[in-house]
């Protein structure tokens, strides 16, 4: 009798938690679907003309800030719940594989189907670290997700044909995989910030031998959101504010003037120009088209595009809360070398 009463109470608690979770998911989806009207409405409320540079920058800021925060909260919550099922050791086995590089290939492949900009990819990057995925594997995903996704490939195919899209796919994945392998081989786990290493060291306490009830799993997800979002949100705001300012005020004519094919320094110059900027593939490819129309070389412009969406300054600002400066410098250096090679290959082949 007592056991039946206990099970009934437990079942009622589960129903309440699932109902609350369903309401939260519905609210999350509604908020995400309302990002564009919200940003446009805030700009109009402020009284700024949306067609001006300032209006463009503000619209960008008020769109991307809730977008990245929603993605961060949603992904970290999901990873927190998943973490109660799968131990860090199992996750590492899944993504690292038995052979060298298999995990990097899997992570880079995952990036193709996740159409995130660089800042939006950071939450899943943090979630991977939280789950104990090897550092080099997480970097393969962080590079691939913004740079080689279906949005970028579809737009490149539509604008330049399958040869350009296919070559970009192969070279972009190569940059992500090789960069992750190099970073993984350097053994820089000690360059993670202390709070991230503390999360990793705790590991997952729930396995098939130690099951949790659903209310406890949901509470674990909420706890992860509070911990990680609480640490990262100021950096997100600062990074997106920088990106919004650059998005609204950087002139295209200046960039096109130095992106010709003849000068050897045009590719590194394009990468240096692209790093401080911030956009996703859908946002930067129209800029690529405009630059090409003004006479810029394809390889040089694609190197610029890769640096914008894989090495943006706002991304570095957000990552600074997770990584120490030495690891950020290694990440930027390794990926920059890969992007430079891609730019030169495109200019030679096409």
Task: Characterise this structure.
The chain is mainly alpha-helical. The protein has one domain (10-349). It contains 17 helices and no strands. The protein has helices at residues 2-33, 35-46, 53-83, 88-96, 102-112, 118-130, 135-147, 150-160, 162-185, 194-202, 214-249, 252-257, 266-274, 281-293, 298-310, 313-319, 325-349. Mean pLDDT is 77; it is low at 204-210.
Name its key features:
mainly alpha, 350 residues
Can you summarize this structure?
By secondary structure, the protein is mainly α. Helices cover 78% and strands 0% of the residues. It has 17 helices and no strands.
Helical fraction: over 70%
- Which class of secondary structure composition applies to the elements? mainly alpha
End-to-end distance: 78 Å
Question: Strand-and-helix sequence, N→C?
Answer: HHHHHHHHHHHHHHHHH
How would you describe the shape? globular
Uncertain segments are: 204-210
Radius of gyration in whole Å, from Cα? 22 Å
Topology:
Layout: H1 2-33, H2 35-46, H3 53-83, H4 88-96, H5 102-112, H6 118-130, H7 135-147, H8 150-160, H9 162-185, H10 194-202, H11 214-249, H12 252-257, H13 266-274, H14 281-293, H15 298-310, H16 313-319, H17 325-349
């Amino acid at each position: 009798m007592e056991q039946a009463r206990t099970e009934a109470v437990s079942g009622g608690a589960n129903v309440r938690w699932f109902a609350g979770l369903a309401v939260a998911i519905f609210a999350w989806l509604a908020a995400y679907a309302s990002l564009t009207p919200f940003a446009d409405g805030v700009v109009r409320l402020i009284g700024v003309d949306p067609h001006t540079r300032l209006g463009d920058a503000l619209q960008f800021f008020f769109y991307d800030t809730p977008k990245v925060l929603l993605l961060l909260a949603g992904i970290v919550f999901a990873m927190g719940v998943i973490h109660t099922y799968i131990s860090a050791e199992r996750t590492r086995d899944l993504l690292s594989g038995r052979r060298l590089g298999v995990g990097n290939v899997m992570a880079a492949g995952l990036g193709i189907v996740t159409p995130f900009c660089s800042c939006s990819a950071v939450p899943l990057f943090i979630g991977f670290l939280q789950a104990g995925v090897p550092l080099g594997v997480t970097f393969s995903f962080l590079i691939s997700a913004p740079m080689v996704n279906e949005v970028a490939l579809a737009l490149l195919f539509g604008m330049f044909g399958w040869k350009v899209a296919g070559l970009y796919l192969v070279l972009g994945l190569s940059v992500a995989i090789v960069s992750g392998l190099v970073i993984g081989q350097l053994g820089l786990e000690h360059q993670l910030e202390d709070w991230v290493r503390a999360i990793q060291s705790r590991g997952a306490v729930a396995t098939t031998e130690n099951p949790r009830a659903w209310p406890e799993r949901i509470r674990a997800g909420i706890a992860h959101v509070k911990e990680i979002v609480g640490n990262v949100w100021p950096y997100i705001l600062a990074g997106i504010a920088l990106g919004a300012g650059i998005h609204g005020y950087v002139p295209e004519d200046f960039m096109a003037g130095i992106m010709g094919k003849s000068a050897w320094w045009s590719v590194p110059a394009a990468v240096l120009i692209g790093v401080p900027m911030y956009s996703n593939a859908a946002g930067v490819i129209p800029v690529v088209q405009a630059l090409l129309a003004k006479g810029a070389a394809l390889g040089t412009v694609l190197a610029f595009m890769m640096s914008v969406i894989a090495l943006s300054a706002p991304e570095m600002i957000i990552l600074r809360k997770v990584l120490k400066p030495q690891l950020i410098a290694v990440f930027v250096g390794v990926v920059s070398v890969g992007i430079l090679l891609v730019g030169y290959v495109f200019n030679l082949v096409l």
